[in-house]
Amino acid sequence: MLNVTVSHLSNAIARLPELDAQELHEFAGEALFNLLDHALYGDDDCSMEEIMADAQRFSRFNFLTNGGESFDHSKSFIVGNGQWLRLLFKDLKTERIHAVAVEYATFVAVIQAFLSWFSTEQASPLLAPSERT
After folding, report:
1. Centroid of chain to Cα 130
2. Of 21, 59, 94, 126, which sees the most CB atoms within 10 A?
3. pLDDT, tens digit (0-9, with 9 covering 90-100), for 69-87
4. CA 99, 101, 107 angle in degrees (round to 5)?
């Protein structure tokens, strides 16, 4: 059940060096979420070239959107800002946007701890093979 989430989190760790975008530092949380959401998911009259350019420029900031059942009904982005990461989530049921900043080192430590726990659980002889995916 968590394999999709594990994949998204592993990819986020690998992409950390690509996530700091100076041109996005000035945006407040909700404004930044809306900019990224519109660029990647907006329904507008952009040409195919503009859509592809936005996808190439901004898709690296996708975080846990479609990141497994735990994140159904949400959309999220992750953006670097110096030694901080900005995590932006929108609850699609309430339409509320949440924005938090966390230090890179803290983010990495928490994600690595989760990935380690998941790996240990996957190897557990107590789980039936069908429960390991």
Report:
1. 27
2. 21
3. 566 677 889 999 989 999 9
4. 120
